[in-house]
Amino acid sequence: MSPLLFLKLALVPFAVWLASLAARRWGHAVSGYLGGFPMIGGPITLYLAIDHGPEFAARSALVTMAAIAGQAAHMLAFSGAGRAYGALAGLLAGWVAYAVVSTGVGTIPLVPAGAFAIAVAGLFAMARFLPHPKSAATLPAIPPVELWLRLAAALALAAAILFGAATLGPTVSGILLSLPITGSIMPPFTLALYGPDALARLQRGFITGLTGFTAFFLVVSVAVVPMGIVASFSAATAAAIAAVAAFSALRRSRA
Fold first, then answer.
1. Which of 9, 118, 132, 225 is found 20 to 30 A from 254 (Cα to Cα)?
2. Which parts of the chain are beta strand (E)?
3. 6: confidence class by pLDDT, cuts 50, 70, 90
4. pLDDT per position as a tens digit, 82-96
5. Between residues 142 and 13, the one the model is more confident about
6. pTM of the model
7. In the Cβ-directed half-sphere of 236, how many Cα atoms lie within 13 Å?
8. Model confidence at 166, in pLDDT bands (50, 70, 90)?
9. DSSP line for 218-241
10. In angstroms, rounded to a whole number, what is the distance separating the alpha carbons of residues 222 and 59?
11. Of 208, 162, 206, whose CA–CA distance to 184 is shortest?
């Protein structure tokens, strides 16, 4: 394995590790912020722009943004089935929901405004239908075994995305880049170990993170071709941070 490929793969479990440590320090909601943020899809999209050109990255980012609706379907299905039948059933239901919605999105001719509207609809559905936490927040004591399992699962999923995206084209790449990696790792552990209230707090944190995800891929999809890789990805990162900060402030003001 080349050093560059190793670095690409290492960034993904690093993102999961960071989100898991954030849960230890600040709770499930902050862990969700980082889990929804483009800490995985962002770097891999940058690799696609470098390896395959700005046009490839722009098309991929467009589909990735629209496939946020699939991430919303995954979260909603996991919440419903997981609460009723357990974490494994929730995970299976979530993946089926993601596959159905994201595959459907991938067949639609997309433009930036349409893809953005689809993403916002998914975020709205999550905000409207995901349960709210009912009890006071508690800090999870994540054991080392659980953390290593999270990292191993993230690395396996990242390898599948990275190798698949290079050969299957921008549309399939975009769907793969929106795969709910952290959304498939943290919620099952959280539900199984800490219960449905912690799951609600984590998933609502994901909504905040996904606002940054949406902003990031919107900017990349419209700016990477005319502005170039460095300027567009810098602007996308700034937009993601600003979106998360604004949405967090809105949530605090409503609370």
1. 118
2. none
3. confident
4. 999 999 999 999 999
5. 13
6. 0.85
7. 30
8. low
9. HHHHHHHHHH-HHHHHHHHHHHHH
10. 9
11. 206
Per DSSP, 133 falls in state P
Give the number of other Cβ atoms within 10 Å of residue 6's Cβ: 10
Phi, psi torsion values for 61, nearest 5 degrees = -65, -35
**Residue from 78, 70, 77, 60 nearest 103 by CA:** 70
Look at residue 255 in the predicted model and tell me its pLDDT: 63
Burial (Cβ within 10 Å: 0-12, 13-18, ≥19) of residue 141: exposed
- Look up residue 137 and give its two tokens: 């927040």
Q: Cα separation of 205 and 213, whole Å?
A: 13
Structural element, H or E, at residue 84? helix 68-85
Show me where the domains of the chain are located. Answer: 3-254
Among 27-31, 75-79, 179-183, 251-255, the range scoring the smallest mean pLDDT is 27-31
Structure confidence at residue 235 (pLDDT): 97
* Distance (Å) of CA 43 to CA 16, 87, 242: 14, 29, 18
List the structure tokens of 119.
């993403």
Per DSSP, 67 falls in state T
Which has more confidence, 34 or 240? Answer: 240
Which residue's structure tokens are 């191993």? Answer: 152
Give which of 134, 76, 79 is closest to 101, Cα–Cα.
76
Longest pairwise C-alpha distance within the chain: 49
Mean pLDDT of the region 215-230: 96
